[in-house]
Amino acid sequence: DTEVTQTPKHLVMGMTNKKSLKCEQHMGHRAMYWYKQKAKKPPELMFVYSYEKLSINESVPSRFSPECPNSSLLNLHLHALQPEDSALYLCASSQVGAFMVFGTKGLMNTEAFFGQGTRLTVV
Amino acid sequence: AQTVTQSQPEMSVQEAETVTLSCTYDTSENNYYLFWYKQPPSRQMILVIRQEAYKQQNATENRFSVNFQKAAKSFSLKISDSQLGDTAMYFCASSGENNAGNMLTFGGGTRLMVKP
Fold first, then answer.
1. Are the beta carbons of A16 and A79 closer than 8 angstroms?
2. Contact B97 A42 (CB under 8 A)
3. Which domain covers residue B101, as residue numbers?
4. What architecture does CATH give domain A4-98+107-122?
5. How many CB atoms lie within 10 A of CB B69?
Protein backbone atom coordinates (compact mmCIF):
# COMPACT_ATOMS: atom_id res chain seq x y z
CA ASP A 1 0.00 0.00 0.00
CA THR A 2 1.70 3.16 -1.22
CA GLU A 3 -1.25 5.46 -0.77
CA VAL A 4 -1.69 8.64 1.16
CA THR A 5 -5.39 9.29 1.63
CA GLN A 6 -6.75 12.78 2.22
CA THR A 7 -10.27 13.71 3.18
CA PRO A 8 -12.28 15.58 2.20
CA LYS A 9 -11.36 16.14 -1.45
CA HIS A 10 -13.21 19.44 -1.54
CA LEU A 11 -14.17 21.79 1.27
CA VAL A 12 -16.00 25.10 1.27
CA MET A 13 -16.04 26.93 4.59
CA GLY A 14 -16.96 30.30 5.94
CA MET A 15 -14.53 32.54 7.73
CA THR A 16 -16.10 31.76 11.09
CA ASN A 17 -16.20 28.00 10.62
CA LYS A 18 -13.99 25.37 12.21
CA LYS A 19 -13.06 22.43 10.04
CA SER A 20 -10.38 19.76 9.86
CA LEU A 21 -8.44 18.15 7.04
CA LYS A 22 -7.37 14.56 7.49
CA CYS A 23 -4.50 12.53 6.09
CA GLU A 24 -3.72 8.84 6.55
CA GLN A 25 -0.92 6.55 5.45
CA HIS A 26 -0.05 2.92 6.25
CA MET A 27 3.44 2.72 4.81
CA GLY A 28 5.17 2.93 8.17
CA HIS A 29 6.49 6.38 7.37
CA ARG A 30 7.50 8.40 10.42
CA ALA A 31 7.65 11.79 8.69
CA MET A 32 4.49 13.55 7.56
CA TYR A 33 4.00 16.93 5.96
CA TRP A 34 1.45 19.57 5.09
CA TYR A 35 2.00 21.63 1.97
CA LYS A 36 -0.09 24.51 0.63
CA GLN A 37 -0.34 24.98 -3.13
CA LYS A 38 -1.87 27.99 -4.84
CA ALA A 39 -2.94 27.77 -8.46
CA LYS A 40 -0.07 27.47 -10.93
CA LYS A 41 2.48 27.61 -8.11
CA PRO A 42 4.67 24.95 -6.52
CA PRO A 43 3.76 23.47 -3.15
CA GLU A 44 4.97 25.40 -0.12
CA LEU A 45 5.89 23.57 3.04
CA MET A 46 3.77 24.37 6.09
CA PHE A 47 4.54 21.76 8.74
CA VAL A 48 6.72 18.71 9.26
CA TYR A 49 6.09 15.98 11.81
CA SER A 50 8.85 13.57 12.64
CA TYR A 51 8.07 10.63 14.93
CA GLU A 52 4.74 12.26 15.72
CA LYS A 53 6.37 15.44 16.98
CA LEU A 54 6.13 18.79 15.25
CA SER A 55 9.65 19.50 14.05
CA ILE A 56 9.13 22.30 11.56
CA ASN A 57 6.58 25.10 11.41
CA GLU A 58 7.28 27.37 8.47
CA SER A 59 5.88 30.47 10.18
CA VAL A 60 2.33 29.41 9.49
CA PRO A 61 -0.45 31.57 11.04
CA SER A 62 -2.06 30.12 14.16
CA ARG A 63 -5.40 29.76 12.40
CA PHE A 64 -3.81 26.57 11.01
CA SER A 65 -3.26 24.01 13.77
CA PRO A 66 -1.65 20.67 12.91
CA GLU A 67 -2.02 17.50 14.93
CA CYS A 68 -0.44 14.07 14.62
CA PRO A 69 -2.43 11.70 16.86
CA ASN A 70 -0.42 8.64 15.81
CA SER A 71 2.13 7.54 13.25
CA SER A 72 -0.50 6.96 10.56
CA LEU A 73 -2.64 10.06 10.92
CA LEU A 74 -2.12 13.75 10.36
CA ASN A 75 -4.76 16.41 10.82
CA LEU A 76 -4.90 20.09 9.99
CA HIS A 77 -7.42 22.04 12.05
CA LEU A 78 -8.73 25.20 10.45
CA HIS A 79 -10.29 28.13 12.27
CA ALA A 80 -11.08 31.72 11.28
CA LEU A 81 -9.53 31.38 7.86
CA GLN A 82 -9.30 34.15 5.32
CA PRO A 83 -10.27 34.01 1.63
CA GLU A 84 -6.56 34.13 0.72
CA ASP A 85 -6.16 30.78 2.48
CA SER A 86 -8.09 29.16 -0.36
CA ALA A 87 -5.72 26.68 -1.96
CA LEU A 88 -4.94 23.01 -2.49
CA TYR A 89 -3.65 21.45 0.72
CA LEU A 90 -1.39 18.49 0.14
CA CYS A 91 -0.34 15.91 2.68
CA ALA A 92 2.78 13.80 2.15
CA SER A 93 4.69 11.15 4.02
CA SER A 94 8.17 9.67 3.83
CA GLN A 95 10.79 7.92 5.82
CA VAL A 96 12.70 10.20 8.14
CA GLY A 97 15.40 11.91 6.14
CA ALA A 98 18.66 11.35 7.91
CA PHE A 99 20.26 8.94 10.29
CA MET A 100 23.40 8.72 12.34
CA VAL A 101 25.70 5.73 12.12
CA PHE A 102 28.87 5.77 14.17
CA GLY A 103 28.72 9.54 14.33
CA THR A 104 28.37 9.96 10.60
CA LYS A 105 25.23 11.40 9.10
CA GLY A 106 23.73 9.52 6.21
CA LEU A 107 20.88 10.45 3.94
CA MET A 108 18.12 7.95 3.46
CA ASN A 109 16.17 7.44 0.31
CA THR A 110 13.29 9.62 1.32
CA GLU A 111 10.83 9.58 -1.51
CA ALA A 112 7.77 11.54 -0.48
CA PHE A 113 4.37 10.11 -1.28
CA PHE A 114 1.61 12.66 -1.74
CA GLY A 115 -2.12 12.50 -1.30
CA GLN A 116 -4.52 13.93 -3.85
CA GLY A 117 -5.05 17.01 -1.77
CA THR A 118 -8.01 18.90 -0.37
CA ARG A 119 -9.25 21.77 -2.46
CA LEU A 120 -10.21 24.39 0.13
CA THR A 121 -12.35 27.42 -0.63
CA VAL A 122 -12.89 30.03 2.06
CA VAL A 123 -15.92 32.26 1.50
CA ALA B 1 19.21 26.65 2.25
CA GLN B 2 18.31 25.28 -1.15
CA THR B 3 16.85 26.94 -4.22
CA VAL B 4 15.49 25.30 -7.35
CA THR B 5 14.85 27.14 -10.61
CA GLN B 6 12.87 26.02 -13.63
CA SER B 7 13.27 28.51 -16.46
CA GLN B 8 10.57 27.15 -18.76
CA PRO B 9 7.05 27.98 -17.52
CA GLU B 10 5.42 26.16 -20.44
CA MET B 11 6.48 23.69 -23.09
CA SER B 12 4.76 21.64 -25.73
CA VAL B 13 5.79 18.56 -27.68
CA GLN B 14 4.25 16.39 -30.34
CA GLU B 15 3.21 12.91 -29.36
CA ALA B 16 6.07 10.39 -29.79
CA GLU B 17 8.69 13.13 -29.82
CA THR B 18 11.34 13.86 -27.19
CA VAL B 19 11.31 16.85 -24.86
CA THR B 20 13.77 18.11 -22.27
CA LEU B 21 12.77 20.12 -19.20
CA SER B 22 15.44 22.24 -17.53
CA CYS B 23 16.21 22.64 -13.86
CA THR B 24 19.02 24.27 -11.96
CA TYR B 25 19.53 24.22 -8.24
CA ASP B 26 21.72 25.62 -5.54
CA THR B 27 22.61 23.97 -2.28
CA SER B 28 25.34 24.13 0.31
CA GLU B 29 24.78 20.54 1.42
CA ASN B 30 27.08 17.68 0.58
CA ASN B 31 24.43 14.99 0.43
CA TYR B 32 21.14 15.59 -1.28
CA TYR B 33 18.55 14.07 -3.56
CA LEU B 34 17.00 15.57 -6.66
CA PHE B 35 13.55 14.68 -7.90
CA TRP B 36 11.18 15.30 -10.73
CA TYR B 37 7.53 15.19 -9.75
CA LYS B 38 4.58 15.20 -12.11
CA GLN B 39 1.25 16.78 -11.19
CA PRO B 40 -1.54 15.97 -13.67
CA PRO B 41 -4.95 17.63 -13.50
CA SER B 42 -5.94 15.00 -10.95
CA ARG B 43 -3.71 17.05 -8.59
CA GLN B 44 -1.71 14.20 -7.10
CA MET B 45 2.04 14.70 -7.09
CA ILE B 46 3.68 11.62 -8.56
CA LEU B 47 7.38 10.89 -8.40
CA VAL B 48 8.81 10.51 -11.90
CA ILE B 49 12.49 10.00 -11.20
CA ARG B 50 15.04 10.43 -8.44
CA GLN B 51 18.78 11.11 -8.47
CA GLU B 52 21.17 10.68 -5.57
CA ALA B 53 23.77 13.41 -5.71
CA TYR B 54 26.69 11.18 -4.86
CA LYS B 55 25.93 8.88 -7.79
CA GLN B 56 27.51 10.02 -11.04
CA GLN B 57 25.40 7.77 -13.23
CA ASN B 58 22.28 9.45 -14.56
CA ALA B 59 19.03 7.94 -13.36
CA THR B 60 16.65 6.41 -15.89
CA GLU B 61 13.10 5.17 -15.50
CA ASN B 62 11.61 3.75 -18.69
CA ARG B 63 10.96 6.73 -21.00
CA PHE B 64 12.29 9.22 -18.44
CA SER B 65 15.94 10.03 -17.91
CA VAL B 66 17.91 12.81 -16.35
CA ASN B 67 21.08 14.67 -17.26
CA PHE B 68 22.69 15.39 -13.91
CA GLN B 69 25.58 17.84 -14.08
CA LYS B 70 26.71 18.21 -10.49
CA ALA B 71 29.36 20.85 -11.05
CA ALA B 72 26.94 22.99 -13.04
CA LYS B 73 24.11 22.23 -10.59
CA SER B 74 21.89 21.24 -13.43
CA PHE B 75 19.28 18.48 -13.43
CA SER B 76 17.27 18.24 -16.64
CA LEU B 77 14.54 15.72 -17.43
CA LYS B 78 14.26 14.06 -20.81
CA ILE B 79 10.99 12.45 -21.81
CA SER B 80 11.26 10.15 -24.79
CA ASP B 81 8.36 8.94 -26.94
CA SER B 82 6.04 11.49 -25.33
CA GLN B 83 2.52 10.30 -24.64
CA LEU B 84 -0.70 12.22 -24.18
CA GLY B 85 -0.75 11.07 -20.56
CA ASP B 86 2.49 12.94 -19.95
CA THR B 87 0.57 16.22 -20.11
CA ALA B 88 1.01 17.72 -16.63
CA MET B 89 2.90 20.18 -14.47
CA TYR B 90 6.42 19.01 -13.80
CA PHE B 91 8.24 20.14 -10.69
CA CYS B 92 11.92 19.76 -10.06
CA ALA B 93 12.71 19.42 -6.36
CA SER B 94 15.62 18.90 -4.01
CA SER B 95 15.96 17.56 -0.53
CA GLY B 96 18.89 17.57 1.78
CA GLU B 97 20.28 16.35 5.03
CA ASN B 98 17.98 16.85 7.92
CA ASN B 99 16.56 14.85 10.75
CA ALA B 100 13.02 15.94 10.17
CA GLY B 101 12.25 14.15 6.97
CA ASN B 102 12.20 14.77 3.28
CA MET B 103 11.66 18.51 3.14
CA LEU B 104 11.30 19.28 -0.50
CA THR B 105 12.24 22.56 -2.11
CA PHE B 106 10.35 22.90 -5.39
CA GLY B 107 11.06 24.84 -8.52
CA GLY B 108 8.33 26.97 -10.05
CA GLY B 109 7.16 24.22 -12.36
CA THR B 110 6.95 23.64 -16.11
CA ARG B 111 3.58 23.01 -17.71
CA LEU B 112 4.03 20.38 -20.42
CA MET B 113 1.44 19.87 -23.12
CA VAL B 114 1.72 16.80 -25.34
CA LYS B 115 -0.10 17.37 -28.61
CA PRO B 116 -1.61 14.58 -30.72
1. no
2. no
3. 2-115
4. Sandwich (2.60)
5. 12
Q: B108 to chain A, minimum CA–CA distance in Å?
A: 5
**Beta carbons of B60 and B78 less than 8 angstroms apart:** no
The CATH number of whichever domain residue B92 belongs to comes to 2.60.40.10
| CB atoms A117 and B44 under 8 Å | yes
Domain count, chain B: 1
Report the DSSP beta bridge partners of residue A44. Answer: A36
Q: Do residue A105 and residue B31 have CB atoms under 8 angstroms apart?
A: yes
**Per residue in A97-117, pLDDT tens?**
655 455 555 555 567 899 999
Closest chain A CA to residue B10: A40
Residues B7-23 pLDDT 10s: 999 999 999 999 999 99
Q: Do A96 and B100 touch (CB under 8 A)?
A: yes
